[in-house]
Amino acid sequence: MADKKLMKGNEALAEGALRAGCRFFAGYPITPQNEVPEYMSWRLPQVGGAFVQAESEVSAINMIYGAAATGVRCMTSSSSPGISLKQEGISYCAGADLPLLIGNVMRGGPGLGNIAGAQGDYWQATRGGGHGDYRVFVMAPNGVNEMANFPNKCFEVAYKYRIPSMILADGIIGQMMEPVEFNTPEVDTKSLKEPDWALGISKGRGKRIVKSYDLREGYLEKMVLARVERYKQIEQNEVLYEERQLEDADIAIVAYGTSARVASAAIKIAREKGVRAGLFRPITLWPFPKVRLAELSKRVKKFVAVEMSLGQLVEDVQLSINGKAEVYLHAKPGASVITAEEVAKTLEKIAKKEAKEYAAVK
Amino acid sequence: MQLLNKRPESLLDVKMHYCPGCGHGIVHRVVAEVMDELGIRERTIGIAPVGCAVFADTYFNCDMIQGPHGRGPAEATGIKRCKPDSIVFSYQGDGDLASIGMAEIVHAAIRSENITVVFINNAIYGMTGGQMAPTTLIGQKATTCVDGRAAKQAGYPIKMCEMLATIDGATYLERTTVHNNSGALATKRAIKKAFQYQMDNKGFSMVEVLSMCPTNWGTRLDNPSEATKYVGESMSKTFPPGVYKDACAADKK
Fold it and tell me: Taking CB atoms and an 8 Å limit, are B82 and A70 in contact across chains?
């Protein structure tokens, strides 16, 4: 029997990253993710790793830029405003093809917003976020157990394709406590091969350069296009999603993270009232499971995006379905808690044809 | 015929892009000679800045990384904490280090990161075409202060060595020049000491080098002495060369 532990979401994220081989963490305090740096500060030295409380989010991501360049598995975490500050650095990491893990425990925005859980950073996470053409591999946990287990997948994909990875959680998942079971054995960092691009001891090999620039005509285009080839492979190989009760569904909720938990409860209520609803939960937000959604739209004719944001996820649903089915939106911005009852009501309205497509259902 | 002074192994035989009369070439050579003499080339990781020295990653014959404007000391922190056996240096200009990267340099010193910073102060933004720098002298002309820097409008030049000397974590701070032979030799001595301190795990070192920028200063390109004179007579008054801190000086006595 595997060990089950009761853990707080943020601590599970930190422990999960550490077990996945993370040996360097730099971060800056911001609510609701403070337990991640707090945990790392005492836990990393126990395994020979290093922790730095940086002077700013900007500095933290650049410490990670340097650390990632040495081939050491490393991580930073923050919450929405802090992630905005990190975007320049994330763009450099993407431009220099560096693998790393970023945790975003989302809170209400824009601006200072508030410190409750929200999902308003979907666009920022899935569209690159910083300047220039690039992607970040983004996973969305729906609870503490996935917080604990996703870092391993993130590092695996990040190193395989040389891409920054992100765990996009929210303040609710970060703060809640749930049982955790680690699915994969702890990574033995000594068994990890030093990547052939990593900076370090150059004895016996040529010098290496880690950089994101090329001023020569046409060369930057080549750099970007080579990256795009890897993005295509990620879209082909690394899409993850979960389906629940979709076999007989007339309406499919599309939701991730906390919204997906609420959606499951809403589906139960709706089904008791005779509305056959199911859940499609993207686990990777980029790559988005667009092929599977398009397939589903041949059978399911009504989709509703349920999100704790103003209507961000719904755009990916529309793009995937491409007019082949009706798309509705249940949006709750401002870090307000979405309830199963209100989502169930939305499902009923859609079933009764009382709801307007694309517009947020009131 | 006898070759008296060959190219350091730590400096690659590639064409540099620096303008005639620029001081970067001298400092590059000095850093490379120091790496050779200390035998650390194969375990050194250098950080190239944003600005004129961005291509330093292609000139030095050691592992190099190029990163965002001002963030060299943060990158250096990440590298050094992950690879403590490496020798890490951050090469930065004045806009990079003393303006956009002020927080990073100050906090690297506060943490006494065991790194070496080579800070080129030429009192101007070079690569972007001659805008006012945080170190531009009062009265000095730049494209964003065409009548000369006025304290009332743009404040005063920042004296980095003096400021960092107040920080407990700063181990060694020295300001030198490269406007003449003795200055270049002093620069080499200082940079060598800074690297040696890092090898001995002594903590944070920075060498500030007053350097020429004839192109953006508007001094005559056919008369390099105008620029060297500016370093020796004007810049050196605002930024007096000297040792501002040497926490380990007593160790050697």
Answer: yes
Condensed to tens digits (0 to 9), the pLDDT of residues A158-201 reads 999 999 999 999 999 999 999 999 999 999 999 999 999 999 99
Contact A200 B45 (CB under 8 A): yes
Torsion, CA B152, CA B153, CA B159, CA B164, rounded to 10: 100
Structural domains of chain A, with CATH: 5-200+225-237 (3.40.50.970), 241-351 (3.40.50.920)
CATH number of the domain residue B162 falls in? 3.40.50.970
- Does the ipTM surpass 0.85? yes
To test the contact with chain B by mutation, choose from A63, A92, A205 the residue with the greatest count of B C-beta atoms within 10 A, namely A63
| Tokens coding A75 | 């991580």
Give the integer Cα–Cα distance in Å for B41 and A358: 61
By DSSP bridging, strand A277-282 and strand A241-244 are: antiparallel
Residue B16 lies in a domain: no
Give SS3 for A25.
Answer: strand
B14 belongs to a structural domain: no
Q: In this structure, what token pair is assigned to residue A25?
A: 């963490």
* Cβ–Cβ below 8 Å for B42 and A201: yes
**Chain B residues with CB within 8 Å of chain A CB:** 41-43, 45, 47-48, 54, 57-58, 60-68, 71, 74-79, 81-83, 85-86, 103-104, 106-107, 110-111
User: pLDDT tens-digit profile of A85-106?
Assistant: 999 999 999 999 999 999 999 9
Q: How many domains does chain B have?
A: 1
Which residue segment(s) compose the domain that B130 sits in? 24-248
Rounded CA-CA distance A241/A138 in Å is 12
